Amino acid sequence: MEISKNVKRTLVTGVIGEDVHIVGIRLLEHALIDAGFKVVSLGIHNSQEDFVNAAKETNADAILVSSLTGHAKIVASGLKGKCVEAGLKDVRLYIGGMLTVDDSKWEEIEKIFIEFGFDRVYPPSTLPGQVIYNLEMDFKIKG
């Protein structure tokens, strides 16, 4: 992937767990690069440790996790704690996709992941522009 010359922030992206749904995160990665972010893409089948290690190695500002299997409550719970243990207490955490298999209301799902330590939680219909806007606001970047 091409990286913009005027990099705003470094982001680690990838799909967590045994999930092979890559299209959404790939589209987001391209949009992030076009918006000036440095993207470190992990691809599919990543553990929490994969995200933490990549963020530590690249001095990332944020980790963006994708999950479409509906098992994110299991595979993403505890990621914030692992980040803190690794010395990454300030790394921002974002997660999006089909996060649960039940038919809970979105507000309930979002609350669960905020309690897990995620800074932003996105439903499957979220467009890349919303994520970019949130990153720019969260990091106070002038677009």
Largest sheet: 5 strands, parallel
Structural class: alpha/beta
Q: How helical, in percent, are the residues? A: 25-40%
Mean pLDDT: 93
Q: Secondary-structure element sequence?
A: EHEHEHHEHEH
CATH class: Alpha Beta
Oligomeric grouping of the chains:
single chain
Count of individual beta strands: 5
- Give the N-to-C terminal Cα separation: 21 Å
Enter the CATH topology name.
Rossmann fold
Backbone shape: globular
Strand order of the largest sheet: 2-1-3-4-5
Number of helices, where a helix is a run of at least 4 consecutive DSSP H or I residues = 6
Superfamily at the CATH H level?
Cobalamin-binding domain
Low-confidence parts = 1-5
Mind telling me the C-alpha Rg? 14 Å
Q: What's the architecture in CATH terms?
A: 3-Layer(aba) Sandwich
Roughly what fraction of the amino acids lie in strands? 15-25%
Question: What's the structural domain tally?
Answer: 1
Secondary structure elements and pairings:
Layout: E1 10-15, H1 23-34, E2 38-41, H2 48-58, E3 62-67, H3 72-75, H4 79-85, E4 92-97, H5 106-115, E5 120-122, H6 128-138
Describe this structure in words.
- The protein has one domain: Rossmann fold (3-Layer(aba) Sandwich), CATH 3.40.50.280.
- The protein has a five-stranded parallel sheet, sandwiched between helices.
- The protein is built from six helices and five strands; from the N terminus they run βαβαβααβαβα.
- It is an alpha/beta fold and 143 residues long.
- The N terminus is likely disordered.
